[in-house]
Design goal:
Layout: H1 12-47, H2 51-54, H3 56-75, H4 81-101, H5 105-126, H6 130-133, H7 139-147, H8 149-168, H9 170-191, H10 203-210, H11 213-233, H12 236-242, H13 248-275, H14 277-298, H15 302-317, H16 319-330, H17 335-363, H18 366-387
Length: 395
C-alpha cells in the first residue's frame, strides 16, 4: 500500500543538505563494504590466509545484505525512516571499529556481518527518499546525487582507504571509516526531518513484484553483470600487484582512475537510461566484458592495465543506474519494493561473485578469474539484448 506524500515545505537549502547527508551515508556504507578490495593482500597477510579466503570479507556483507534488505524493510515498515537510518549508521560505526581492533580473522568476518545489515537496511530505505525531501521537479536530480555515492566510494573511498592502509596500516583505514560514520550520524540527526512511514512494503507486495516479466529480466541481467564484476574486481589488487607488478602507490592511482571513470559512467548512463534503457544496459555489459576479458592479455603493462581499468570503470559506473531503472520501470507504483528487490539481488550476487572468484583464484589464477568474468559479462549483454528485443521496456 502506498500514498503520495509531497516534500515538506522546508527551505530549499535545508532540503538539499538532507539529500547530501543521505548521500554521505551511502558513501560511507559503500566504502566500508568494498574497502577490503584495496587491502585484500594486506589483510590476508596479517591473518595468514589466502587471497581467496580474504575475499570472504567481501562475500559476507553481500549475503547478509541480500537477506536484510527485505527482512528489515518489512519488519520496520511502519517505523520512522529517519530513526532507522540513524540506528543503522551506529551499527556501521561499531562494525568498522570491531574490524580495526580484531585479533583474529573470525572477528573481522563478524564485523562484516554488521556491515551487511547496514547495507541491506539503509540502502533500501534511503534510495527512495528523494521524493520526500525535495520538490517533484528536483526528484530526478536528487536521486542521481544519492546514487552518485556508489561510484564515489570507488573514486574517493577505496583509493583513499588503500593509501591510508599502506601508510598507517589497514586497521587505521577502518577507524577512519568509523569516524566518518559518526559524522554522517550527526548530519542525519541535524538535517533530516521526521520521516514517518507512508508506504507499507509487505511480503505480498514483494512477491507480486517478482511475478512481473520486467522484474525477471532485470534480475537476470543484474545477476550476470554483478557476478562478472565482483567475481573479478574483488581480486583486481592481487592482479595489479602480481601480474602488472605495480607498487602499492601505483595500485592506488589506478584504482583512483577507475573510480573517476566510474563517476563519469554513472552520469552518462543516467542520461542514456532515460531515453534508451535497453542500449545503455547492454553497452555496459559489453564494455565490462571487453575490459575484464582483455586484462590477462593487455594488463601485463602499467599502461595497458590503466586503460582497461578506465574502460571498466566507465562500464560498471552505469550498472547500478541501469539496473535500478529497470526494476523501477517494472513496478512504478511501489518504488520502495522495487528498491528492496534491486538491493537484495544486487548484494546476493555481489557476495556470490566474490565467493566464486575466490575459488577460481585459489584453484587456478587471478588471470583465469578475469577471463571468466569477461565471458559472463558477454553472456549478460547478449541475453539482455535478446530478451528485450521486442519489448524495450519492462511490462
Amino acid at each position: 500500500m502506498s500514498t503520495t506524500t509531497l516534500a515538506p515545505p522546508r527551505p530549499p537549502l535545508l532540503s538539499w543538505l538532507a539529500v547530501v547527508s543521505i548521500t554521505l551515508g551511502i558513501f560511507a556504507i559503500v566504502t566500508s563494504e568494498i574497502l577490503p578490495i584495496g587491502l585484500l593482500t594486506t589483510i590476508g597477510a596479517d591473518f595468514r590466509v589466502t587471497d581467496g579466503t580474504a575475499g570472504l570479507t567481501m562475500t559476507l556483507p553481500g549475503f547478509v545484505a541480500a537477506v536484510a534488505a527485505p527482512v528489515l524493510t518489512v519488519a520496520t515498515a511502519r517505523l520512522d525512516r529517519r530513526v532507522m537510518m540513524c540506528v543503522l549508521m551506529v551499527v556501521l560505526a561499531a562494525a568498522d571499529v570491531l574490524a580495526a581492533v580484531a585479533g583474529a580473522y573470525w572477528v573481522v568476518l563478524a564485523s562484516r556481518v554488521l556491515v551487511g545489515l547496514t547495507i541491506g537496511g539503509f540502502w533500501s530505505i534511503a534510495a527512495g527518499l528523494a521524493a520526500r525531501l525535495v520538490p517533484p521537479a528536483a526528484v530526478g536530480a536528487a536521486t542521481a546525487l544519492i546514487f552518485s555515492a556508489v561510484p564515489l566510494g570507488s573514486v574517493l573511498g577505496v583509493p583513499a582507504g588503500t593509501l591510508i592502509g599502506h601508510l598507517a596500516g589497514w586497521r587505521t583505514a577502518f577507524l577512519v571509516l568509523a569516524g566518518l560514520a559518526v559524522v554522517v550520524l550527526v548530519a542525519l540527526l541535524a538535517l533530516l526531518p521526521p520521516l514517518p512511514a507512508h508506504q507499507v512494503t509487505g511480503a505480498r507486495v514483494l512477491l507480486d513484484l517478482l511475478r512481473l516479466r520486467g522484474t525477471r529480466i532485470a534480475l537476470l541481467a543484474t545477476f550476470l553483470i554483478v557476478l562478472a564484476h565482483f567475481g573479478t574486481y574483488t581480486y583486481v589488487t592481487p592482479f595489479l600487484e602480481h601480474v602488472t607488478r605495480l607498487s602499492p602507490a601505483a595500485v592506488s592511482a589506478v584504482l583512483l582512475a577507475y573510480g573517476v571513470a566510474g563517476v563519469a559512467g554513472n552520469f552518462l548512463a543516467g542520461r542514456a537510461v532515460a531515453t534508451r534503457p535497453r542500449a545503455a544496459f547492454a553497452v555496459c555489459g559489453l564494455l565490462a566484458a571487453a575490459a575484464t576479458g582483455l586484462l590477462p592479455l593487455a594488463g601485463g603493462t602499467p599502461v595497458g592495465a590503466a586503460v582497461l581499468l578506465v574502460l571498466w570503470g566507465l562500464a560498471y559506473g552505469g550498472v547500478p543506474v541501469c539496473s535500478q531503472a529497470w526494476f523501477l520501470r517494472a513496478s512504478p507504483g511501489t518504488p520502495e519494493a522495487a528498491t528492496v528487490v534491486f538491493t537484495s539481488s544486487f548484494q546476493a550476487t555481489f557476495a556470490l561473485g566474490a565467493l566464486l572468484g575466490g575459488t577460481i583464484v585459489d584453484a587456478l589464477s587471478v588471470s583465469a578469474v578475469m577471463i571468466a568474468g569477461g565471458l559472463t559479462a558477454l553472456v549478460m549483454a547478449a541475453s539482455f539484448a535478446h530478451l528485450t528485443r521486442s519489448r524495450p521496456r519492462p511490462a
